[in-house]
Write the structure tokens for this entry.
Amino acid sequence: MSERNTGTFAQPFFGRLLTAMVTPFAADGSVDEAQVAHLANYLVDNGHDGLVVCGTTGEYSTMTDDENERVFQIVKDTVGERAKIVAGVGSNDTAHTIELAHRAEKVGVDGLLVVTPYYNKPTQPGVYAHFKTVAEATKTPVMLYDIPGRAGIPIAPETYRKLAKIENIVAVKDAKADMGAASEVMATTDLQYYSGDDGLLLPWMSIGAVGVVSVTAHVAPALFRQLIDAVVAQDLVEAQRLHLELVPIVRATMSRAPGCVAAKEILAAQGVLDRAVLRLPHVNSEPEVLEAMMADLASSAIASSVR
């Protein structure tokens, strides 16, 4: 193992509080560049030390490569001196992933989020070859994204151990919630773990994760910042209190509608975004879903922030 440390108290590569940022669209469906910059500023002003741009929540798969690169550039120019910028470049096509990675690297981002190849369902040797080929095509640090619910396959512990030997593969966003498997990896590699499940931030940090890549932190940034800081300060009582305060907010954002839909609708209700425009196949919530979402928030610690 190198000098890097996987423990919660290690210096994180990409910060501790990162949001998988939505991509604001104008009424005609085009990228709203002014709102992109506004949202990036808002998140950093409210406690974020990193942003993941054009990930799943950013609707990157409905955007052109030129649009993705432009959003990377806007966010980098806007907050790049105040926060780490991680560009979502994942695809189920290794060559296309490398093309996006090169575009992001040209912008000067701090990291690349690379998801497990989805739909194709490669073997573990194929998963290893995909990540290895992408990482070796760039010099930018890589965060692996393990989300079998979307990709159809996990990254196995033995695959992580092989990938950890590649110099610029440094971190994992884990959205499979197998803490036993993750503990094996953390005990035997220098990979830094980030929670990919908003409601499990506290348990993840308790076993060694350094932070979170969140959707819900769009709408409750202060609570997430306070929770992370409480863990780092080893104040378990305060961390538990904040964890429970976040329960209805996480439910509103992650259980009622897809994350990008809920985040945009709540941000619009908070007045942070002008509108909640989505690209197909996503559509806005039905009235009863939106009502349930707002009822969750009305019972929460951020009730006053919703109009």
Summary: The radius of gyration is 18 Å. Strands lie at 17-21, 50-53, 84-88, 111-115, 142-146, 169-174, 192-195, 211-214. The CA atoms of residues 186 and 299 lie 37 Å apart.
